[in-house]
Amino acid sequence: MKKNTLLYILLVFLVVMNGFFMFKIFGDKPPKGGNPGKFIAKELQFDEAQMKSFREMNDAHHEAMMKVSREIKGLKDQLFAEISETTTNEAKVNDITRRIGEKEQEKDLKTFYHFKEVQKICTDEQRTRFNILVQNALKRHGRPGMRKPRK
């Protein structure tokens, strides 16, 4: 009987721990890489008219960015298809990487001008808050959380 009791206690403990870890992993945290548009609209407290304009701008920007991202993916597929070639065509590789760079530049410009358009629908107070949000996002870009550098 004692062997079974120990097993039951261990089973209950494991079920409780499993539930705890499932809650910690899938709990009330927003998904990583959530919708930045919703975050911006919430932080700036857009009114209905602003929200309508913002949604239209955001949808158009999203479509444009997806198109450029697909083009970049296609170019990268072409680039890495060159790995299987026995000889490297330097001119072709350089041309593909140059075109990838141009597409990345296009994405950055589209994002910049999208932000300028968003600024236009903001009140002066919202514009100040928006500028702070953008600067904070740029400071964190590519660095999840604040980590100490490795020694």
What does this structure look like?
This protein is an all-alpha fold. It has helices at residues 2-26, 36-44, 48-81, 90-120, 124-140. It starts with a helix and ends in an 11-residue tail after the last helix.
The fraction of residues assigned to DSSP E strands is: under 5%
Helix content: over 70%
Q: How far apart are the first and last residues' alpha carbons, in Å?
A: 55 Å
Uncertain residue ranges: 144-151
Question: How do the SSEs run, as a string of H and E?
Answer: HHHHH
CATH architecture of the domain at 48-136: Up-down Bundle
Mean pLDDT: 83
Query: What is the tally of beta strands?
Result: 0
| Structural class assignment | mainly alpha
CATH secondary-structure class of the domain at 48-136 = Mainly Alpha
- Write down the overall geometry: flat
- Work out the radius of gyration: 24 Å
**Helical segment count:** 5
Major sheet size, sense and barrel closure: none
Stated plainly, the CATH topology of the domain at 48-136 is called: Four Helix Bundle (Hemerythrin (Met), subunit A)
State the gist of this model.
The chain has 151 residues and is mostly helical.
